[in-house]
Amino acid sequence: MQTFSAQMEIPGNGIVEDRMREKRGFYNRKRLLSCMLAVGAALSVTACGNNDYGHHEKGVANTDTSQTQFAIMGGQGALSPGYDNNVVLNQLQQEAGISIDWTTMKESLGEQVNIRIAGGELPDAFMGVGFNNYDISRYGDDGTFIDLTPYLTEEYMPNLSKILEENPDIRSAITMDDGYIYGLPAGERMGTAGIGVPEDYSIYSVPQFSMINKAWLDDLGLEVPTTLDELHTALKAFKDNDMSAKYYGNAPGSTIPMSTGFDQWCWGQNIFYAGFGFTNWPNDVCNDLVLKSDGTVEFMCVTDQYRQAVTYFHDWYAEGLMDVEMFSQTDTQLISKCSQGYVGVSTWWYIEELMGDYAKDYVFLPVLDGPDGTHNVTIRTGGGINSGQLNITKACKSPANLLKFYDKWYAPEIVMQMQYGPIGTYFTGQDEDGVWLSISDEESQEKYGKSSGELKGECEVAGPKLILSDYYQTTFKMEDRAIERLTDLYDFWMPYVGDTATYPVDCVFTGRELDDIDWYKANFESAVSEQEGLWIKNGGPTDEEWNAYIEHLTKKCGMEKLLAVYQNAYDRYSGKSDAE
After folding, report:
1. By the 8 A CB rule, do 132 and 44 touch?
2. How many CA atoms lie within 13 A of 186 on its CB side?
3. Tens of pLDDT along 207-261?
4. Could you say which of 36, 181, 230, 365 has the lowest number of CB atoms within 10 Å?
5. What's the burial of 253, exposed, middle or buried (CB within 10 Å: 0-12/13-18/19+)?
6. Domains, the chain, ranges and CATH?
7. Whole-model pTM?
């Protein structure tokens, strides 16, 4: 058996940004936001260090209202023609009594923004750039971005102030470590409230839906498993009876009892760890965190349950029940195997999308009890709230006038049009409850000569768009596939969940904490993922290997420093540190 070494081969490894893009891709939401977040992370933070706050004072509203023409610089989507002739934006400007000179671009945004900041040639605001929290804090500290805290009131921004009052966690997510707010909130909260149920669980709460070929089970006289041991029996029967060949007439030996990715967001093996008390993604440090009932956090990858899980599943791998290509295959390769009838058990969001013509033979496989007769699903969440989509600079003479315009964006019917397109273009009618319905592909092709997705791409505006779950009930209809997934989540999966606590992914970190994350995070993730793969393939860990693994994570990968960073950030987010 191979012992822990930092030089070992690292199985297929993904980072959380990639998985966020992957998840959003299921809803055909190829937004500018994803790209701009990456751009924002690359922006230099070395300029404007003179603490020149212009006409602005932190914590105090500037009452000057003489400026009515504003210059705004930012991004636009690949299909967007720009914002000069955008009917919704122009109407909002008219209502707010202002006019905007737009400088937007599809490419080189990060470079151009950096040049403007470094040269001191600031617009009144940056929109749709996607600054990360590190940049926001630095630019807020040196005076480039003004403090918006005094404007987030009913007097200046009644729509947004009401949202912040009803959702204090959103305010926490946009408040930097110095206590000030330098950007307006943006984000999409798609949850079960959007399908009309009382509880609002994020669509990402249980990222992996497991499924099994019930037709094969019926042919073998087996019931749908409820425990890991029963699943082991079923997988062995699939293999021994070569069910792909027997039932579908595929080539002899083509049966793959279970195929997944390795630690992948919606198509990994991690849901099966629930039988050992957790479901985590060890190749992403944030999704390896567990928030305990006492408000403390811990990494699952160093717990006894985690050690037991990797030891247990090595036996499955050694018996040929888990796909030998799980560590290297892409999602496309997995879909190909499943859609050809080779695979008995897998994970994905939709049975139909993964299993293709064989979908009718599959059912969801429930969360399975482990050797001790229990299970626990660790709840996750999707993309958080950010404040890098609208940041007003010290060049703005009358921020109150500009914020009057942006406050209108926080009306549900307005953000709906910013995200998708205008009423009368993208939204063509309302149902009996007054909920807006979007144009179909067929209607869009007939009227505009393009798909509804292309139409959305042309109409969508980058910027501080905040969509809450209840908007899908009160304002506009959710996409059909999202409704399907949320219904499955609520009806089938959430009853298996005992504890709905989750670590908030939109915690705000200090500059020093971000330095620690940058320094240690990648090495920590790689070391954990590497060793997990080796233990599943080769067996283990022995006491010696386990101790060496813990020592390596502690001494070489900054485990204790990372844990302190995430704990401190959570304490600030939850208000625990203030209380103390």
Report:
1. no
2. 31
3. 999 999 999 999 999 999 999 999 999 999 999 999 999 999 999 999 999 999 9
4. 230
5. exposed
6. 31-192+385-420+460-481 (3.40.190.10), 209-378+509-579 (3.40.190.10)
7. 0.81
